[in-house]
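Components:
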Amino acid sequence: NAGVTQTPKFQVLKTGQSMTLQCAQDMNHEYMSWYRQDPGMGLRLIHYSVGAGITDQGEVPNGYNVSRSTTEDFPLRLLSAAPSQTSVYFCASSPSGALGWDTQYFGPGTRLTVL
Amino acid sequence: AQSVTQLDSQVPVFEEAPVELRCNYSSSVSVYLFWYVQYPNQGLQLLLKYLSGSTLVESINGFEAEFNKSQTSFHLRKPSVHISDTAEYFCAVSEGTGANNLFFGTGTRLTVIP
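Structure:
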């Protein structure tokens, strides 16, 4: 099993450009989520999904879109990148999203710089 | 509202010395508590968690954490650290059972000095 994979590893964008961060898992997990990690701050939840076709907003959803057409994939879209979106982005998955008995598995991250 | 405070952003410690990484939280209800570890250039991994029952929880690599309700703390300790323990450690708290309710602290970078 590859676990949770993210592409690309690094990306530099100009302000106003759009792009999609890819996330895939091969563990048949229902729950997937996106976090951003900024210096001096903990991970913050952007969006999450409890299954194919179902998504919801987290703590910091503005400027980001998600969709979940398959169980395996959960892409994160930046429609018009801003310097404030410079961050490290982590995708995570777990069987059901229940913290009591599930373990969340994190991808290796995508480091995004917006100029 | 829940929040997590990790007062120490960096903790240097010599190899084989003990270490304590501090975590305090604020919440008005019962919580679940977690410690995650992030090795260089990797994603986070669950180290240990407290859900209920015994207030002392242990990980497979020698770390332990104790839930102290009166002090709203969940400090992480290891009696003797190794070079391989060098990493960033995140404390996290959840008031509910869903992963979407998980809030992370700002992290503590543990550096083990040979």
